[in-house]
């Protein structure tokens, strides 16, 4: 975590933001989606693994909160830089517009991680019972704050989701889309929103969030199947791996003919 922090500080301090934002790609945010995912996994390990006691869980919970903060707040910097890029250079080319969905990832994973870590803190802080922070009351407070902050943060995720979907649909309406493997990047970021909806449904016992989670799951399943269909089709047609058949260099047999 400290290594990642140092690398981020060095990169941002040595980057000419004015010039760099003209070529900035949403994929730059992927490492910090992974960072917030690590935080979520830490909470899941504490909650659902067998044989975990307070002594084992507390270091995982504390380090997961730190990692979650690292991932989310660096994502804030990247979001700001990318909006500067949009204002200076406009939208990405039509075939790259699906990559806008990558911007959703950190918000969805952070919202889910805060809820899972809050539940884990509520479970183990009282059993640990040391210091002024690792107490039952603090664990209950973190569980409540996890839901509240999760609602705030998922709002940012929905903003980027609506923005990305609108741009994709507008480009599709103009018939400027061409299938590429970048379309696969639309699945995981939106799945992070679905994960947070599942957690909201559990924490608030909310039929609304459970319904939204089901709808998102079905949409993601359709997206996944369509990506497989178009990927297999374009591999068969030679458009993805070797280029279009019409652009391939002639083989020796064809040259002889």
From TrEMBL:
- Segments passing through the bilayer: 57-84, 141-169, 181-200, 212-230
Q: Does the keyword Cell division apply?
A: no
Q: Which InterPro entries match?
A: SLAC1/Mae1/Ssu1/TehA (IPR004695), Sulfite_efflux_TDT (IPR051629), Voltage-dep_anion_channel_sf (IPR038665)
- Lyase as a keyword of this entry, yes or no, is no
* Keyword annotations from UniProtKB, A to Z: Cell membrane, Membrane, Signal, Transmembrane, Transmembrane helix, Transport
This entry carries the following GO cellular component terms, namely: plasma membrane
Protein's membrane topology: Multi-pass membrane protein
Q: Which residues form the signal peptide?
A: 1-20
Q: What sections of the sequence does the record tag as coiled-coil?
A: none
Compartments (UniProt record)? Cell membrane
Q: Name one Pfam family in it.
A: SLAC1
Q: What is its main location?
A: membrane
- Tell me one GO molecular function of this protein: sulfite transmembrane transporter activity
Family stated for the protein in its record: Belongs to the tellurite-resistance/dicarboxylate transporter (TDT) family.
UniProt-listed PANTHER family: ACID TRANSPORT PROTEIN, PUTATIVE (AFU_ORTHOLOGUE AFUA_4G09410)-RELATED (PTHR31686:SF3), PTHR31686
What is the name attached to this protein's record? Uncharacterized protein
